[in-house]
Design goal:
There is one protein chain. The protein has a domain of about 35 residues. Helix content is about 50%, strand content about 0%. The chain starts with 16 loop residues before the first helix and ends in a 13-residue tail after the last helix.
Length: about 90
């Protein structure tokens, strides 16, 4: 039988007592163990801050003909161009 936690690691962590008390209340309310609550918290943290979040941006400019700096300078040069407003027709 294969379970969701076949590749698990046991670890020891220090958690402040006030956090343990709050965790126990939450675990009682949701009918889950402390271990399950911590697994869920770690998973949620990694989804938000994991390496794939940072790596997703690497290489997005690959294959473009214009370099990043020249693109930036071209975009900023638009700020120097005066905007011409067409007169409104009555």
């Amino acid at each position: 039988m294969i379970s969701a936690y076949d590749d698990i690691m046991r670890t020891i962590i220090d958690i402040p007592e006030q956090d343990i008390k709050a965790l126990d209340v939450m675990c009682g309310r949701e009918h889950i163990s402390r271990a399950e609550a911590i697994r869920r918290a770690v998973s949620a943290y990694l989804r938000r801050h994991g390496p794939e979040q940072h790596d997703a941006a690497f290489g997005i400019w690959k294959g473009r003909k214009q370099g990043g700096l020249s693109y930036q300078e071209a975009m900023r040069s638009e700020w120097d161009t005066p905007t011409v407003h067409e007169p409104t027709k009555p």
